[in-house]
User: Which sequence fits this backbone?
């Protein structure tokens, strides 16, 4: 087993992938960021540079740290080349089972035999992903939270066959990158989304049933429960398609209709209103800031 993790390959240059690359590089690891799209890689490097500048301005890191961090991130469009000498691979590709299984088969075929293969999946079974490889004991969930440079938690998810040694390595590694790891077992939604998503779904039901408006629901949870964002704003931030998908994973995986996504959530996803990323969700983001929106979608 690999106890000296130094080279980390991150698959996927989206929001989670660039955040994960950022935190590993900032903690002195050699990072290779992989994506099939060169544009996505360029965008990711721009975002990482901007987020580091923000940290320099707040005097959390120095300009020298920023430069060192950026210099330790390489980019690559070929997955097989990128994992050749990796000690750890963290997959943060799109949340799609078939895609993830294919990526893990490819990583397994090309990464060194002692490399640990981690996935940032928010809901797909770690055990199922591990079974696509010839090293299920070395496959583990390493679930980061958005914005990755800010959120302290890493949910470490053990698949059925994940070994104690691999789990300990990843727990220690998460601490090395300044995070607080929490170990959980592999069941639908793990702990984070088993608890968070039904709360978001219930907030959407409250809106759907006319109990209160968008701003009122969010204000209750922000000011009454000290949540940094209200649940409807958070749903927009996560992506309404992602929220709906995770509710379906809970519904199917736990076999309980209480987890069915609210019809209003389904309707909004059908309409392409996916939250911040599409410019519109429970709020309007088309002007670059969060604004109230009034829409026929909110009436039954
Ligand atoms: N990179 C680096 N720093 C960042 C950043 C980024 N991408 N985004 C924000 N920050 C920093 C800011 O510089 C600021 O730092 P200081 O405290 O030193 O001033 C701090 O974070 C707060 O940022 P802002 O002042 O700009 O904004 P805010 O106070 O409104 O906080 C927020 C923004 C951190 C996103 C906060 O609203 C929050 O914590 N929201 C909840 C987020 C959450 O729940 N995330 C989990 C989503 S679920 C998930 O990711 C997984 C899943 O499986 C679905």
Assistant:
């Amino acid at each position: 087993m690999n106890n000296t993790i130094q080279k980390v390959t991150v698959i996927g240059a989206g929001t989670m992938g660039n955040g994960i690359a950022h935190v590993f590089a900032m903690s002195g690891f050699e990072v290779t960021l992989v994506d099939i799209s060169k544009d996505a890689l360029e965008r990711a490097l721009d975002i990482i540079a901007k987020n580091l500048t923000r940290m320099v301005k707040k005097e959390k890191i120095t300009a020298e740290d920023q430069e060192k961090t950026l210099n330790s991130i390489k980019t690559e469009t070929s997955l097989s080349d990128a994992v050749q000498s990796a000690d750890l691979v963290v997959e943060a590709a799109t949340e799609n089972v078939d895609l993830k299984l294919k990526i893990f088969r490819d990583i397994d075929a090309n990464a060194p035999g002692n490399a640990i293969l981690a996935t940032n999946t928010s809901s797909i079974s770690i055990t199922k992903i591990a079974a696509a490889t010839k090293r299920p004991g070395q496959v583990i969930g390493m679930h980061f939270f958005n914005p990755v440079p800010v959120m302290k938690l890493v949910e470490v998810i053990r698949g059925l066959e994940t070994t104690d040694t691999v789990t300990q390595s990843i727990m220690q590694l998460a601490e090395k990158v300044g995070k607080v790891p929490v170990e959980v077992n592999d069941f639908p939604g793990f702990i984070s989304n088993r608890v968070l998503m039904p709360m978001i779904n219930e907030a959407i039901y409250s809106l759907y049933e006319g109990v209160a408006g968008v701003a009122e629901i969010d204000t209750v949870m922000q000011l009454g429960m000290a949540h940094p964002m209200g649940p409807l704003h958070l749903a927009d931030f996560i992506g309404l398609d992602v929220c709906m998908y995770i509710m379906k994973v809970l519904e199917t995986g736990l076999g309980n209709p209480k987890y069915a996504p609210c019809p209003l959530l389904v309707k909004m996803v059908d309409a392409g209103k996916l939250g911040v990323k599409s410019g519109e969700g429970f709020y309007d983001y088309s002007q670059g800031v969060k604004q109230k929106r009034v829409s026929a979608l909110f009436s039954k």
